[in-house]
Amino acid sequence: MPRRARWPGREHRLAIETMQEHSIIGRPVPKKDAWLKATGEAKYADDHSLPGMLYGKLLRSPHPHARILHIDTSKAERLPGVRAVATGKDFPGIKYGNLPQTRDYLPLALEKVRYIGDEVAAVAAIDEDMAEEALDLIQVEYEILPAVFDPEEAMQPGAPQLHDHAPDNISSQSAFHFGDADRGFADSDLIQEDIFETQPVKQGMLEPHACIGLWDNTGKITLWASKQSPYVVWRQLAMGLGIEPGKIRLVQTYIGGGFSGGKQEAMPMDFCAVLLSKKSGRPVKFVHTMDEVLTIGHLRHPIKIWLKTGIKKDGTLLAQHCKIIANGGAYSSIGQLSMYIPGAMLNLPYRLPNVKYEAYRIYTNNGFCGAMRGHTLPQICFARDSQLDIIAAKLGVDPIEIRLKNAAQPGEVTPNGFRLTTFGFTECLQRVVEASQWREKHGKLPRYRGIGIGCGSLVSGARLMGHSSSTAEIKVQEDGTVLLVTGSTDVGQGADTVLSMIAAEVLGVQLDDVRFAMVDTDITPVDPGTFSSRVTFWTGNAVKLAAEDARRQLAEIAAQKLEANPEDLIFRDRQVYLRQQPQRGLSFGELVRLAEYRLGRIIMGKGSYTSGEELIDFRTGYGNMSPAYTPSACVVEVEVDPETGQVTVTGIWGAHDCGFPLNPMLVRGQVLGASVMCIGQALYENLIRTQGKVMNPSFRDYKMPLATDVPKLANVEHINIITRDPSGPFGAKEAGEGAATGVIAAVANAVYHATGVRIKSLPISPGKVLFGLKEMQGKGNKPANLVKG
Amino acid sequence: MKHLLPVSLRVNGEPYDLLIPPWRTLLEVLRENLSLTGAKRSCQEGQCGTCTVLIDRKPINSCLYLAVEAQDKEILTIEGLARSAEVLHPLQRAFAERGAIQCGFCTPGLILAAKAFLEENPNPSEDEIRRAVVGHLCRCTGYFQIIEAILAAAREMAGKGAQVGH
Amino acid sequence: MGYLRRLPRFEYLAPRSVVAVCDALAEYPGEARLLAGGTDLILQMRRREVAPRYIIGLKGLSELAFIRPQENGGVTIGAMTTVRTIESSPLIRERYGLLCRTAAEMGSPEIRQSATIGGNLAGALPCADFPPALITLGAQVKLKSQQGERLLPLEEFFLGPEQTVVGPSDLVTEIQLPAPSPLSDGAYVKFHDRHAMDMTTTGVSAFVTLDQERRRFCDVKIALASSAPTPLRAKNAEAALRGQAFTEKAVEKAAALACQEAQPRSSWRASRDLRLELIKSLTKRAIRQAWEKAKAPPDGGRP
Ligand SMILES: Cc1cc2nc3c(=O)[nH]c(=O)nc-3n(C[C@H](O)[C@H](O)[C@H](O)COP(=O)(O)OP(=O)(O)OC[C@H]3O[C@@H](n4cnc5c(N)ncnc54)[C@H](O)[C@@H]3O)c2cc1C
Ligand code: FES
Ligand code: FES
Fold this sequence. Notes:
Chain B has five helices and five strands.
């Protein structure tokens, strides 16, 4: 049984209590690069420039589906100031992508364009104005093809086909069955069936995609880019260019927000930057405008979710059957994984013995979908936890009780093989109920105010097809400082700080003594990058091993000098001393100089952490996806304006089992930021597409939450549930995504509680609420908050 | 057509004499001509506030402002805010120390907007702060730690009197 | 796509006086555009909706940046006065609380710092917030050109979305507001999805004058934003209230009439049905709030 201490949610208390045990870990220290960012010194991709640099721009398809008959670039080439032009024919025509089954991208379109925004040509000119003008001069002759935008239409026989390799436009398909769902439904007292729909939403990072490419005359390629998974880009670049990865050097810049999407993959701009550099002999920079960013895709999948749940009278969940159809857009991105996740995690954080799942990801002539913070879990949690409230109301049980009753427990194995090592879900529920004063509020708030709960779960990094391992190197410098080299990136989530904290803790140096290297594929070790909440867990473990390796080397030398056993040495506060006789020791700096100067032993530690052999089988859905899982519970309070339908979130309380918060201030920032993102999806955000055209490719109309849309500080709390996962570094698990997965359902449930209107399609817009209320008034129904239960 | 106009800008106290086309925005000139990349280019529509700089102590979206129209005005960018590398502005410190900075792309604009705001309202309520930063998107933090940082900086600045920073 | 580009080339002129502006407009008829705060025009140029050969910059024209009390008790506002200046002017706050509050709810502090009242009117976006408020205040607009001056009621200023009576050689110079009558005040209520920054889905301004006993509406003006191709006076709604006591029934009736007068359209931003619901709710709210404010003793209820 893992230890489940009852920590007060307050950061400082936690800090004080863990200080005895650790000197660095557990403290709410500021992010290492915060000062550089506060002064404007941190250089993001668009802030870099190279001598002689050219500026690139991409020509995009104005048609949702068309055959390219001819491209005439001659006029553009003749425009003074234009140095190079590229089309799809300049590339070897090799499709690239994430997984072998999903390789359907080309650097630039060859025969066909498949959505409005598909890249068809690129130019490099001496400035951006000139590059834009050159695009106007490229003439493309298209044969317009019939297009299809709705996934259900696209699955019909006779529908326009996007890709030759994908009959019926099925981009990916999953079907699993665990336990015996038919039996589960037969044994159920109540069967509930609903259809939920989610909308396309966007990462919304403020930094647009940007890169600088250089192809030098030795054939060496360098790409400076804003990439959260540089090695994925590195591999994909090599694939699409048809060359060895060894010829490519990818250098990461500061990253202005990621949240997956294009910063995780090679994009046409990356290919074109290097290719146009080859053609022109100059470095070439590309920066997307925000309307390009919002048009091209990498969206969170809009999904239609049919969910059927069987339950006993006492509230025990027996079976679930879920079918989903996702509008995948024109390309695959990471689509296969996107479809696996909702089925594999349909049950969590609940105990559910029988699950049946069918998923279809369908190609349509829209901007494509991929991963975004939480991947496909916020969608499925919205459906499942909304339905759980519908069921609770029908059974007359409290929404909290039904969740407590079915809460999965540590030590359990889910039907599809997830092993829950630590899993403080029950405690999440208990604590969030206290913090939100649920019992005083539920069923008792005045009219048009409501409270709702939503829960979710996440992985601490997914085991994916072999290249999941993370590696770290520790170089101990002769001045006693430490250089930490990993293949992981900081996108703002705090990897630079947390990984450095782990190294500092193990080596007993100060956090400031550790320098965190940014990724440069010539120097740093290969790594999958930042996604799936894997960095703290995976790279963190690698860093811990590397630091322990360096410490072991140093301990040997210290032991000789101090005539002691290496095992008896303590590394702390820049000192190395004997556990029993703290006065016998030397400073870390002295020890390093002794090792490196006197003995000539250069101290370098290395550590790798890998997933082990367990891989998921995408076809059966069976396998233990992650080394650790995190549950979370979130309560949201809303106020609804009955005359306009506007929903205001007035409070949010969350509890999340992150194992152990290595830096509670950063954990709080992750959790709150992710929660507000989900408030955005619940209430405001929607990338509206009409006949494949994005109507709102602008932050004016793609409405992300503002400071005025979030609750007062007094009504916001995040509680860390401490379970100390045995395999996480210092007990830590995921903290960047999981805590927010239940937020959308919590908002939907709170709106229901406030108004009696059950909204099953996102976003919960004023119109839906207002007309829902009118319909109810027509029927003479009372708001749910006046009815207990 | 006259393509280039002479423009004199005062940026962070330094005089710059430039010859620029009139269709350049202040943001473009700061970033491309003066290499002051602290002001960021994001939405280019006045929506996100990453490009905010102060003109005569007031915040504007430099993406919507022609550089030629900043002639003779006093421009402050994030690069000019700290008194020295050692002495940061209380807002910079509060942002850094209180978790208000994650990816940091929104930070320069927010800090400058907050500075102008605190000059007008040195003792703001939480709600007034929210309304003062509606022109700034932050996708990372959810704003809570930003609001806390501005409150903390306001307290510190009020405590130390008006001389702190600029 | 290609939706947001760098600015097109233009020649920049910065006349030093109103007369010089009129001369410049006359010299390049149809080829020149006035640039005030630029919060609208720069975006239109980026999207290549317009690409004028000449840009006439008005920022340096201090002649048009003023708020001036008139002897008759009214106030004149220069076209280049920024939203921020209007929001923070004690004179405006005292005499036209409605305008001050409307200004304070527009855009962001950054936008308000640049955006001007002249640009807000001349830009004629159907969702602009000043027009309804100013129309209910009885504002008049002064236009100038080489040919001379014209003064016209703001109501007659708008012709369609982004279309006004301002001709290619005209300049809006000032907005004149009549002296507020005692026992009058107004409210502008707008709705958009988020709590700030959005384009107004629906906006309603109501300005009411009470009788001596503060029991009846002596005069009422109601104007709507985003409810028709131009800012719209809801005259039937006004008439229904005039002379009436304040009752929920009277307010309901006025709101229903406003809905009949409005011609909102469906777009991907909002459906016609939703806009009609909003017009109804917001009209009621605006009237109620205006009534409360007008009823309150001077200084008592005003911010
Ligand atoms: C982020 C953002 C938020 C916004 N929020 C709001 C809001 O809440 N409410 C609202 O109403 N608007 C809003 N707007 C729109 C815009 O800011 C306003 O309409 C503003 O008042 C326009 O004024 P300007 O001085 O910037 O006009 P400009 O952009 O300079 O000009 C607009 C038009 O008017 C013409 N023009 C300007 N001055 C004159 C003159 N004196 N005589 C004749 N023609 C002239 C110009 O040629 C141009 O066609 C917002 C805009 C942005 C970018
Ligand atoms: S870049 Fe200027 S406001 Fe977004
Ligand atoms: S810190 Fe990333 S956008 Fe604010």
